[in-house]
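The protein record passed on below.

***
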Amino acid sequence: MKGKFLAFFAIFSLCLLAVSPFLIRIVSAASTATVAATVTAQIYSVSVTDGIVAFLTVAQNSTQDTTTGGVNNSQTATNDGSVAAKFNIMAANSTGGTGWTLAATAASETYTMKSCTATCDTTPTWTSVGIDPSYATLVASVGVGSTQPFDLQVGTPTSTTETTQQSITVTVQAVAP
C-alpha cells in the first residue's frame, strides 16, 4: 500500500507542477487602463506689421515720430505664440557712413529712439527703448492672437557731420509675462 501511495503522490505532484503555471496566471491576472493625454508647446512668438518706417529727413537736434502728426506710420505687434506674452523692444546703433550711437539722451553723433503704446496721436508718453543688447518693456502682457499698436520716435543728434542716410534696426521680442 505504501508503494501505491508513493506512486499516487508522485503522479499528483507531477500534475500539480504541470498545472501550476496556469494557476499562477489565473491568480495573478492583470488589468490595464489608458490615459488620454494632450499637450501644447509653450511658444512665444511676435510679428510686426508693416515693419518699415521712413522718418524722412529730420533736422539736427529734433524728433520725428510715426503718429498721425508725424509720418503717420504706426506699427502693430501681434502675439503669434501659444500663450500670453510680454513684448520687449530695443534698438541698436545706426548704420550708414560712420553711424550714430544710440543713447537715452541725444548728443553729438548720438541719437535716441522711443516708443509709445497708448494715446500716441493725442497725448503720447514716449519711453526710451532698450539699447542693444538690453530690452525695455513695450507692453506687459498681450493675449494669444491679440495685437498691440505702437509708435516710434527718433531723436537726431544735437550735432552731426554724417550726411549718409542712417538705417536703424528696432527689435520687438516676445517673452513670458
